Amino acid sequence: MNYIQLKTLITTRYRKTTFTILSLMYIVGFIGLRIPLTQEYFKVLSPFNLWASLILLLLFHQDFQPKFILFAIITFLVGFFIEVIGVHTGIVFGEYQYGQTLGIKLFEVPIVIGANWLILVYCSGVIVEHFFQNLKSSISGKIILSIIAACLMVGLDLLIEPVAIRLDFWQWSFNKIPVQNYLGWLVVSLVLQFYFINSKFLKNNLLAPLLFCLQLLFFLLHTLLPA
């Protein structure tokens, strides 16, 4: 049995278990962050949650050819270093700085931010390609797919921002989220999504839609329910 066959067997056998574990991670995390007594402990766990989410997501990926590995590395690095530029210059997303919640920093940016960009680009791209496969046949269709996926990411960021401030993920100058942030997200997301759409590797990851929905619900519930 080769690696691909073994991996397929494992992901098929433990699919429900993994789905359950991932869902419980976000449910327990949400509850823990809502309870004042446990909030500080769960804030410390936030970067571990993101790393675990990425690892589980990659376990369900089915095509580790060089093109995918290159995509993953480039997306991670672009996402991380665009944040480095943003933090130090304010010209990408506006004036902001990271707090302590997201863990170890390099150049004043948590390393896990690269993982977060990779997760969001990958999951959004997988979802859009699944529902609009017929658009991939032309350049104009690929651009449309990229725009839709980028808009999904910006829509999620709209929910993330107020919660991120509350949990000290990051803080904005003058405590005001600038429109520039969303425009910056749209441009960077669009570039990375166009790269994803044009990359030739298998993208039928069954965990991607669940992970995106869990993040969406996590931040939506934090936004809707009073602190």
UniProtKB/TrEMBL annotation:
InterPro entries: CruF-like. It comes from the Bacteria. Keywords: Membrane, Transmembrane, Transmembrane helix. The chain crosses the membrane at residues 17-35, 41-61, 68-91, 111-132, 144-165, 177-197, 206-225. The keyword Membrane applies. Pfam families: Caroten_synth. PANTHER family: SLL0814 PROTEIN. This is Carotenoid biosynthesis protein. It comes from Arcicella lustrica. The lineage of its organism: Bacteria, Pseudomonadati, Bacteroidota, Cytophagia, Cytophagales.
